[in-house]
């Protein structure tokens, strides 16, 4: 059978004995199934898994299948596995092993899909993606942009630097040769005209495009060029300005920059103008990934210094060292600067409610990974979902932004629902996250069905280890040996 990975607690939520030729691999019965799309639950259901796919969902009393492993889901809630739709593997070849160790960590925190938005170790990430898909290593499904497009002398390591249309064509040929899942474009040194041309040419090739947006170009021009998603909500403040075109002109001629630019954008944000632009974005199918987590960490550093977090035991020392830059900067701020950064964060986060009101597709992503200070892969998505609810979404909308909009954005089928034919990526929770988004933190178990997989004669099961939980979370505690799967010894082999 295709690989099915089951992570369960030692508190014995499973029972049953091995069968020589069972028609199914796993049954979770007497569980409440969450329909994220409709925002409702169905009680006392049985979910049947075979070869990494769900083959039946039926009231428990009508169950006719058998399986060697049967999970008693009484009082529990079952939903699709979570997706982090913006994170980064990176930090150079010497940190590849620390990045690799994040894969089981993310599984432990209920994440079965990630969108890697470019860095400098794509030559490692692409094989990891393929190995996860084949069932050779344990981890979430990986969808990656590979190296992103930038201009000459980019500040980011690993970029493909272009300055002409000919170089753009060669860059896109290279990315297609790598079989990337989408294309990432940023604006650090890329010329505005070539930025727009990059979007248009990428779209002609049928690829999905994710990007930062240059302040020198009005949002309508970027949308009309064909961008698929805008990463980071801070870019939407300018898009919602009543004077956006004049601001772009001021940036272009050099008369508006730095603090003056920020103050102009903040002072001219207008809800009527914003919703007009956001409705236009929605009509063109443009998505937004707010990435509220990192900004919250940095803006409120004085209230929660994360340098002593329990979670750091799961993050390699090399990755931790990449956190220093941004944190060292905010630690130099005086009281006035601290107040200003908090006000800026609250102002940009408030834009989320206007995006939702305009029916813009929202993707739940964290910006977790190397460089992005103390924004932890795994944990950060739970924090992101809570922030999305705080700033204007319902729990159902936030869950949809993770488990439904993420796969849909990447044009991936078979994800986002607990239904026959879907991948068996299933998150078992102690309480209903539709009632309280913080309930995504109450993880009881995880089934990761894999995309494809290799033949196995048994199901791999791991217990939920005992010990102190990371601060504020009722989640699995991982072992100190990061080279091994975090749930310790297998129950079955």
Quick tags:
33% helix, alpha/beta, 21 strands, TIM Barrel, 2 domains, 5-stranded parallel β-sheet, 493 residues
- Per DSSP E runs of 2 or more residues, the count of β-strands stands at 21
What is the architecture of the largest domain at the second tier of CATH?
A: Alpha-Beta Barrel
Gyration radius (Cα, Å) is 23 Å
Average of pLDDT: 88
Describe the structure.
The strands form 4 sheets. Strands 1, 2, 3, 4, 5, 6, 7, 19, 20 and 21 form a 10-stranded mixed β-sheet that branches. The chain has a 5-stranded parallel β-sheet with strand order 13-14-15-16-17, with helices on one face. A 4-stranded parallel β-sheet has the order 10-9-8-18, sandwiched between helices. It folds into 2 domains: 123 residues, Urease, subunit C, domain 1; 328 residues, Metal-dependent hydrolases (TIM Barrel, Alpha-Beta Barrel). A hairpin with a 4-residue loop joins strand 3 and strand 4. Helix 4 crosses helix 5. The two termini are 14 Å apart. The protein is α/β, with parallel strands linked by helices.
List the helices and strands and how they pair.
Blueprint: E1 5-7, E2 14-15, E3 26-35, E4 40-50, E5 53-59, E6 69-72, E7 77-80, E8 82-88, H1 96-100, H2 102-108, E9 111-116, H3 122-133, E10 141-144, E11 149-150, E12 160-161, H4 165-177, E13 183-185, H5 192-204, E14 209-211, H6 219-225, E15 229-231, H7 235-239, H8 244-253, H9 258-268, H10 271-283, E16 287-289, H11 292-299, H12 317-321, H13 324-330, H14 335-349, H15 351-357, E17 361-362, E18 368-369, H16 379-390, H17 395-403, H18 405-409, E19 425-429, E20 443-448, E21 460-462
Parallel strand pairs: 1-21, 3-6, 3-7, 8-9, 8-18, 9-10, 11-12, 13-14, 14-15, 15-16, 16-17
Antiparallel strand pairs: 1-20, 2-6, 3-4, 4-5, 7-19, 19-20
Helix pairs in contact: 4-5, 11-14, 16-17
């Amino acid at each position: 059978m295709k690989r099915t990975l089951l992570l369960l607690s030692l508190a014995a939520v499973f029972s049953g004995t091995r069968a020589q030729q069972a028609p199914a691999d796993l049954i979770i019965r007497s569980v409440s199934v969450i329909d994220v799309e409709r925002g409702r639950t169905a009680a006392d259901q049985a979910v049947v898994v075979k070869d990494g796919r769900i083959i039946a969902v039926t009231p428990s009393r009508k169950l006719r299948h058998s399986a060697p492993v049967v999970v008693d889901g009484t009082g529990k809630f079952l939903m699709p596995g979570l997706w982090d739709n913006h994170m980064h593997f990176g930090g150079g070849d010497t940190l590849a092993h620390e990045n690799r160790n994040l894969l089981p960590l993310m599984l432990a925190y209920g994440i079965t899909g990630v969108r890697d938005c470019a860095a400098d170790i794509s030559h490692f990430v692409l094989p990891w993606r393929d190995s996860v898909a084949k069932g050779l290593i344990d981890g979430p499904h990986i969808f990656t942009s590979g190296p992103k497009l930038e201009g000459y002398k980019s500040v980011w390591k690993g970029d493909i630097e272009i300055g002409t249309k000919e170089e753009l064509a060669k860059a896109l040929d290279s990315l297609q040769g790598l079989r990337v899942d989408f294309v990432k474009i940023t604006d650090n040194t890329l010329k505005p005209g070539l930025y727009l041309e990059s979007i248009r040419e990428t779209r002609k090739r049928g690829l999905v495009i994710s990007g930062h947006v240059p302040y020198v170009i009005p949002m309508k021009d970027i949308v009309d060029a064909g961008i698929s998603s805008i990463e980071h909500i801070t870019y939407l403040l300018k898009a919602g300005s009543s004077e956006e075109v004049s601001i772009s002109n001021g940036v272009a001629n050099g008369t508006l920059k730095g603090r003056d630019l920020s103050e102009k954008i903040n002072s001219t944000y207008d809800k009527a103008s914003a919703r007009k632009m956001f409705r236009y974005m929605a009509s063109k199918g443009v998505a937004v990934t707010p990435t509220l987590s990192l900004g919250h960490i940095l803006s409120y550093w004085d209230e929660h210094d994360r340098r002593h977090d329990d979670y750091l035991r799961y993050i390699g020392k090399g990755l931790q060292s990449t956190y220093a830059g941004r944190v060292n900067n905010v630690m130099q701020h005086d009281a006035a600067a601290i107040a200003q950064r908090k006000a800026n964060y609250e102002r940009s986060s408030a834009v989320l409610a206007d995006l939702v009101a305009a029916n813009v597709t929202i993707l739940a992503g964290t910006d977790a990974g190397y460089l992005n200070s103390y924004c932890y892969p795994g944990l950060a998505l739970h924090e992101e979902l809570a922030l999305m609810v705080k700033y204007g979404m319902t729990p159902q909308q936030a869950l949809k932004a993770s488990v439904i909009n993420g796969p849909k954005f990447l044009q991936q089928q078979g994800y986002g629902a607990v239904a026959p034919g879907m991948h068996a990526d299933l998150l078992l929770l102690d309480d209903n996250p539709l009632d309280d988004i913080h309930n995504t933190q109450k993880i009881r178990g995880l089934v990761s069905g894999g995309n494809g997989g290799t033949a196995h004669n048994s199901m791999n099961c791991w217990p939920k280890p005992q010990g102190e939980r990371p601060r504020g979370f009722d989640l699995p505690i991982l072992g100190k040996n990061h080279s091994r799967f975090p749930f310790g010894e297998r129950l079955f082999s």
